[in-house]
Design goal:
Blueprint lengths: L2 H7 L7 H14 L6 E5 L5 H9 L4 E5 L7 E5 L2 E6 L9 E5 L8 H9 L7 E7 L7 H5 L8 H10 L3 E8 L4 H10 L15 H14 L12 E7 L2
Parallel strand pairs: 1-2, 1-5, 2-4, 5-6
Antiparallel strand pairs: 3-4, 6-8, 7-8
Helix pairs in contact: 2-8
Length: 234
């Protein structure tokens, strides 16, 4: 996940409408898979894997991030969470890549690297920022390399040897307003994230808008701020 945004939101991240909505979309895609062991790549604090440990029957999480100063172990919902700078072969059956691939030069290579470390049948869930025309100071601030159309991220996953299970856009209901904000940032003097802390009222309203979209999310291949792809290692 984007560590700069995590720094902006701090302890409020779990209450912010954007991250709550993205966590709900994540659950919508993976609940039926009933994952047991999660590999969270580029995990940062491990917000999304911790969320799954707290809300599903998943048993453990392995959070991998080159930004960790040292390996450490802790827990979430009484379940083990291991933080590592890298990992060898693992029995994890769900790999999360939440807002990671847009940060690296070789996105397909990164997927292939971790596909080689999990067993056949393991699932991959990747999210990336959508649509090149939305490139703005938000992306510059977060040190993105690119944005993606849904077909492009699906091609990346296939190129790494995975089979696509489902792809969809999310944050479609807020897409028009967010697009105006992002495009306006192109003229900003200094690059900055468009994600901000909000009070309870704004969080409630925007959270409700995203919740209303959730039933349509799995079939939305038209537009949204984020592209989600669920894939499987054969």
């Amino acid at each position: 996940m984007d560590l700069k945004e995590e720094d902006i939101l701090g302890a409020d991240i779990g209450r912010h409408w954007y991250y709550r909505a993205k966590a709900a979309a994540l659950r919508r895609l993976v609940d039926a898979l009933q994952p047991r062991h999660i590999l969270d790549v580029g995990a940062g604090s491990g917000f999304f894997s911790r969320h799954l440990l707290e809300t599903t029957n998943a048993q453990s999480a392995l959070c991998v991030d080159i930004g960790y100063p040292a390996d450490r172990d802790d827990s979430a919902a009484g379940k083990p969470v291991r933080h590592r700078r890298d990992t060898g072969p693992t029995d994890c059956d769900l790999v999360l890549m939440m807002d990671v691939l847009e940060h690296v030069d070789d996105d397909q290579g990164l997927v292939r690297h971790y596909a080689a470390r999990v067993p056949s049948g393991a699932y991959f869930l990747a999210t990336v920022p959508a649509f090149h025309f939305l490139w703005s100071g938000h992306d510059v601030f977060l040190e993105h390399k690119r944005r993606y159309r849904l077909a492009e991220i699906e091609t990346t996953m296939r190129g790494a040897g995975l089979q696509i299970v489902r792809g969809a856009y999310y944050f479609g209901f807020v897409f028009p307003l967010a697009s105006v904000v992002r495009l306006a940032q192109r003229t900003a003097a200094e690059p900055r994230s468009s994600l901000k802390r909000h009070g309870p009222f704004i969080n409630t309203i925007l959270g409700a808008v995203c919740a209303a979209e959730l039933p349509l999310f799995p079939i939305n291949r038209l537009a949204g701020l984020s592209a989600f792809v669920l894939a499987r290692k054969p």
